[in-house]
Amino acid sequence: MASKFLPSRLPLPLNSPRFHRLPSTNKTMIPIASFSSSSPSASSVDNSVRKQEEEEEELQEKVAQALTYHHQTKHGFANYARGPRGLDWANQPNPFRRYISAPLLPLLHFPTDRPIVAVTDDAPLYSSLFHSLPPPKPISHSTISQLFFDSLALSAWKTTGFSTWSLRVNPSSGNLHPTEAYLIAPPIQSISDSPFVAHYAPKEHSLELRATIPSGFFPNFFPDNSFLIGISSIFWREAWKYGERAFRYCNHDVGHAIGAIAMAAATLGWDVKLLDGFGYKDLEQLMGLQFFPDFKIPSRPIKGKFPEIEFEHPDCLILVFPNGSNPFDVNYKELSSVVNEFTNLEWKGKSNSLSKEHICWDIIYRTAEAVKKPLTIQKGEFLVDQFKSSGICSENSYKGFTIREVVRKRRSAVDMDGVTVMDRQTFYQILLHCLPSGKGEKHRRQSTLPFRALSWDAEVHAAIFVHRVIGLPKGLYFLVRNEDHLEELKMATRSEFKWEKPEGCPDDLPLYELASSDCRELAKHLSCHQDIASDGCFSLGMMAHFEPTLSEKGAWMYPRLFWETGVLGQVLYLEAHAVGISATGIGCFFDDPVHELLGFRGSKFQSLYHFTVGGPVLDKRIMSLPAYPGPSIDA
């Protein structure tokens, strides 16, 4: 019986694994015995070996710091990760970054309600984008406006009593929105006569012009009709509420933003891809973030006035280009040299202050330092994967919504009703859109929408608790998103698990039933005792191929694993709304008890994000107001 390894009473969490220095890999052994100690060549070889060893040691220390952060910020039944003991409402961060005195360039608005919204070139059916992309549109004031309107803009205002707050198209943990965005583009009529860098201001749905850049930047390095979007994070916005665990949530939100941008770009016939060869310093200079003051990281959490922790950490750079483009060269070395000169540009505007007082959670900033990506001098063409259609088994599950209706009406459910059910084919269809590769392919390479924005093979899987899916037994299931990991997963999980394809499962959906059991109470307790994890149709935990990925590629993959979970979460949000229900990301869960349930030991696989999908409970006390024009408050 499954109950023997799906206990109704969960044990206390396992002890966190001891931290250790990872073994060196790929070390080049240079024979030096044949050289005398006085030989200049021997000295040169000694220095080369010593330098290589020092570099490897530094890389290992960075991975160790990422692992230390990850284990230190786990929640357990006996204790939660460190955070504030209450919410300091007087110092709640301003959710809107502005660059004071920078020219404000308004963007266009678009209809959002039926019958005004119709299936048009501007707003195709949501489900159609998973089959093929429309012809690419030119870059213009209108299309740039539409891209931001359907990805990072405000979607509504909410009010109850004396409280009013905004919602955005891109979701965020706690609705705190640490994510900022920058447009780096060639000249665009009605926006700028010169190539430019601008900050996106979502409250105003406008661009703040930060700088004009050299005229040869785009024609020398990028294909025609392309532009860049930079993403950055303000850790303090999340840390105000969540303390040390905030670094995780900021990177979830980066993934949500990447997914939101990819979907909005697809509507316009544009493809997107991370330019992941750039290093941290390149991104900082390209977005004009080098002017935030440096600060000394304290040795422990400390409260006081630390305006310097309101800086923006540059996360990634997204290339937006016409779909169907041929492969092209990206010379990162030359690009880096050009971007290095951006420091000398005339940057406009001064960043606004977000809070009067702060708590500096030192481990966040120590880890952010450790996971900074260096410049990668990649050779060869920038590979543009051919667009791959996602699998189809129940397209009738979708309610005929346009992409704009889905993305702009997306909401995070606060509660699930515990009643709504889902049919099996709809469940399978949602999971087909969660896969990285095209229908009929072995799943590994991320080539479907929106995962094709990512530059690495899939590293994240999903352990699924099925609660209310008609035609499918309640129980624990597993979605394998990289089939190269299948045997490794079977070896890493409990020997009692069945690993059988469920009834009616499409051939190209690598979903496996592990155990049949009513998991509602179990899912609830694993997600910090939250009813929302048990009251939906299903909930899940996203399991990353963790320590091997960091060991092989470097500490800079740590945030990227969270980005992948954020993109996957974005798909789940949109899929839920497209079939007429809702979803919510769950950042609070008991890490090691989840691993214990599955049988994971050590850090080979780790749970990074949880999610629930089901029928929402609407709070009728809360009134919705239009996103634009919003109330004249800074909230």
From TrEMBL:
Residues 31-57 are annotated as: Disordered. It comes from the Eukaryota. InterPro entries: Nitroreductase, Nitroreductase-like. GO terms for molecular function: oxidoreductase activity. Residues 137-290 form the Nitroreductase domain. Residues 31-44 have a biased composition (Low complexity). This is Nitroreductase domain-containing protein.
